[in-house]
Specification:
5-stranded mixed β-sheet; 51% helix
Amino acid sequence: MTTSNRFLEPRILLGMCTLAIFLNGCVTTTGKSSSQKGYSVGPSYGSEPKSSVGSSQTKRTDLSILVLPLDPNIPENSDEFTKKNIWPELRRAEANHFAVKLRDALNNTNTFESARVVPDKTATGDLYLSGKIVDSNGEDIEISVSLTAINGETLLQDKLYKHRVKEYELNNPRNDSSYDLYDPLFEKIASDIARILRKLPSDKMNTLQTIETLRFAESFSPEYFSPYLETSKRGITRLTSAPADEDRMLRRTEELRVRDLLFVDNLQQDYDNFSRQMWEEYSLWQRESYFESKAARKAKLKGIGKKLLGAAAVAGGIALVATSDPFSGGGQALGGTLVAAAGVATIGSGMSDSADAKMYKASMNELGRSLNIQLAPKVINFEEQTIELKGDAAEQYQIWKRFLKDLYELDKTPDITL
């Protein structure tokens, strides 16, 4: 079967497209129920949604990528919050803010038709970027990321990215007030993702686009579109055939696809507003925590080093005393005693540095708690005039998808003249 670009008309029309999601295994055969179909991401199998750094020379593709809010990685045990310097609301805010930063970095590579942040993995796209915050303390940031295509293929799995902020970045005159100390990490991730995309052959890109179109259509009419797709036990979806260019059923879902793209595109404003509203407080926390984190790390290392040196000195002093000649006038024994005493003093100094580290840690906790309180009431909301949308972005998107489903069902019901 030859795959064409005939399904790209809505994207070309609007200059937008949200493509690509994080899939992990769809176990199905053609024509089975939603649960049997086994899709892990993307539109559901005809069922109603549940309630609830780029270079201009980079090869540009027609693929779009969806960025999911990161996993905030918040411990279930609240006793771990302070120990790990984690403040739940701060982490939840970072989960959305980092997704926005990744989206912008991906767009700056000039590789994708578009990059968009979406509330969850049920959105329709060609590629899906997901991730987890491993650490974020102002000085160090660690993020684990994965990239999955709409056909279920994993292109990048749980790759860990790390970055340590340099002090000169805080006062670099070339950085404006919007500069994020973590930007180098986001740019590195985006660069790697773009490199992966440049290696994909054109026919594979076209196939992903066709699968994306049919997956969206299948979510409205599985009995009609499911025969065009087949998913292996490994969760990889392939095309068995494709509908005709002027297929009436396909045209109906394409109209809904245009509306869905517009909704997701408008949703970007809410994510942008959220990042802007939190930025002043967050950037202050980020910069102050940088010094606290750095001081705590150095104090801890200094304390450990002093303890090791002190222990060695005590051991050496004791050895001198033990091997001293009692008839030699006591010089060697006295020397050993002095060495041991110096070692004890060094250990004491190390203990003091450890206490300093705890003090810095306590200061970080206070900074985090302050931001935690200020960010708590800020949520992402989107109000659409034709339907009532409530809750956070994910809840609103599910309401929107149910609305599209209702439109489809209404459209396919024939008018009856009495």
